[in-house]
Each structure stands twice: as C-alpha cells, then as structure tokens.
C-alpha cells in the first residue's frame, strides 16, 4: 500500500514516513538536517487549454505525453549538476505545474521548460 507520494505527497503521511525512517536509522533531527542540502528551485503554474494533454508516470516525475516533452526535459537537465525537473497536470484546474532545481543555473532549466510548455 502506498502511503506517500514523494513528488506531491500529503504532509501528514510524509512526516509519519520521516518519523519512521529517523527511528529506524536512529537519527536525530539534527542528523537528518545535516544530510540535506536545499538546492535553488522554481515552481511555476502554466495555464493550458487542456491539462489532460500532459500524462505522467513514476509518481508524476516522468511525462509520457506529449511525445518529446520528457526527452526535452532530460536533455536540458543533463546539462546541469545536481538537477532535476518535472511537469505534471493539476488535478483541479487547467494548469500544468513545472518544477526545476539544480545546484546552480536553475533559472535556465526553468526558462527552457517553460518555453517548451507553451504549446
């Protein structure tokens, strides 16, 4: 049974999962905090005519349609260190959420993905 979606998870189930992991690893909150580095990131909502044009898989981390979108994301992300990006349709409104992060240059990834999304 899935109790947590790592990409767009529920905060309560996420915190219960964190508590379980900390207990299993015998980590304090300080141990956990020192293992994490916050990277520069951007999140954007792009208004679209039909949010269902974007289909995803892998907990909404990979786009399966439109064809070519995921390849464009992967090609762009590969140019930057410690980077990732994904797009996903909103569940309630005709927007697509675009997320990008990298250890630097995140704005370039973000700009490229946004440009591609205006279809």
Explain how this protein is built.
The chain is α+β, with helices and mostly antiparallel strands and 119 residues long. Helices cover 35% and strands 23% of the residues. It is built from 4 helices and 5 strands; from the N terminus they run ααβββαββα. The chain has a 3-stranded antiparallel β-sheet, with helices on one face. Strands 2-3 form a two-stranded antiparallel ribbon. A hairpin with a 4-residue loop joins β2 (55-57) and β3. α3 runs antiparallel to α4. It is globular. The termini are far apart.
State the helix count: 4
Query: How are the strands of the biggest sheet laid out side by side?
Result: 1-5-4
What percent of the residues sit in helical stretches (DSSP H or I)? 25-40%
The succession of helices and strands, N to C, reads HHEEEHEEH
Report the average pLDDT across residues: 82
Low-confidence stretches: none
Quantity of strands, as a count? 5
Let me know the largest β-sheet: 3 strands, antiparallel
Percent range for β-strand residues: 15-25%
| Class derived from helix and strand content | alpha+beta
Q: Give Rg in angstroms.
A: 16 Å
Give the N-terminus to C-terminus distance in angstroms.
37 Å
Instruction: Label the overall shape.
Output: globular
């Amino acid at each position: 049974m899935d109790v947590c979606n790592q990409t767009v998870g529920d905060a309560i189930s996420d915190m219960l999962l964190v508590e379980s992991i900390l207990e299993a690893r015998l980590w304090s909150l300080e141990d956990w905090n020192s293992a994490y580095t916050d990277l520069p990131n951007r999140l954007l909502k792009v208004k679209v005519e039909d949010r269902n044009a974007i289909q995803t898989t892998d907990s909404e981390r990979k786009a399966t349609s439109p064809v070519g979108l995921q390849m464009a994301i992967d090609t762009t992300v590969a140019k930057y260190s410690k980077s990732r990006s994904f797009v996903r349709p909103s569940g309630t409104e005709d927007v697509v959420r675009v997320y990008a992060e990298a250890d630097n240059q995140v704005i370039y990834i973000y700009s490229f993905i946004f440009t591609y999304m205006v279809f």
